[in-house]
Amino acid sequence: MKKTIYFTFILLLLGGHLVAKETQTAIERQLERDKKEERIRDRWARLIPRQNKLQFAGSMGMLSGSVGWYYGKKNQWETDLFLGFIPKIDNQDAHTTITLKETYTPWRLRLNDDLTYEPLTTGIYINKIFGEHFWEKLPERYPEGYYFWAVNTRFNLFMGQAITVKLNRSPLFGKELSFFYEFSTNDLYLISAIGNKTISPWDIVSLSLGLRYRVL
């Protein structure tokens, strides 16, 4: 009788141990699945645009609007995709532009609880113009070598400054609103200015103004 009791007790202990082990394994698997799902959600969340910009001039059209993202350890990087337009002027038709822009902000200065100053913003952008008179390859009507560049695509450099106002006192108004200005030039202007003393820096530099609205 005692042996039966001992044997039953040992079986209960072993069974309890196995159940506890299986329960622990199930919990660990569930936690791993939860972490995996969280990583997937985070990756998809990063694809959601986090800011919008409205820019006047800057060799990307008279007016351009964008969706974009900011990221980095201190949110010092920005990537924006712009859609702009050049209005009809005289006999020239209106044109559409598309621009991919990368911005780097090395540091920011907090002026007070609501204002932040960005003393330097810099970066590059690639602009493409769509239209009959803007092409990538030289049309047959021109002699070979007449133009050595693509008329519809420009590579640009820029630098500027920005000041930011916080809006997060209410979630209805987004996170912050910034005003910025930039001086820019492009590859064709720089090539034309090299060795040409008649072209001053102000002949190859353009000024643009803009607003940046961060939602998240």
How would you characterize the overall build of this protein?
Helices cover 24% and strands 40% of the residues. The protein has 216 residues and is of the alpha+beta class. It has two domains: 1-47; 49-214, Beta Barrel (Porin), CATH 2.40.160. An eight-stranded antiparallel β-barrel has the order 1-2-3-4-6-7-8-9. The model has no long low-confidence stretch (mean pLDDT 80).
Outline the low-pLDDT stretches: none
> How is the CATH topology of the largest domain named?
Porin
User: What overall geometry do the principal axes of the alpha carbons give?
Assistant: elongated
Q: Number of domains in the coordinates?
A: 2
- Fraction of helical residues: 10-25%
How is the main sheet built?
Answer: 8 strands, antiparallel, barrel
Distance between the termini: 72 Å
CATH architecture of the largest domain: Beta Barrel
Strand content: 35-45%
Averaged pLDDT, please?
80
Count the E strands: 9
CATH C-level class of the largest domain is: Mainly Beta
Rg over C-alpha atoms, rounded to the nearest angstrom: 29 Å
Record keyword descriptors for this entry:
216 residues, alpha+beta, 8-stranded antiparallel barrel, 40% strand, Porin, elongated, 2 domains, single chain
Topology:
Blueprint: H1 2-46, E1 51-56, E2 63-71, E3 77-86, E4 95-104, E5 109-110, E6 115-130, E7 153-166, E8 176-186, H2 187-193, E9 206-214
Antiparallel strand pairs: 1-2, 1-9, 2-3, 3-4, 4-6, 5-6, 6-7, 7-8, 8-9
Give a brief description.
This protein is of the alpha+beta class. It contains two helices and nine strands. The chain has two domains: about 1-45; about 50-215, Beta Barrel (Porin), CATH 2.40.160.
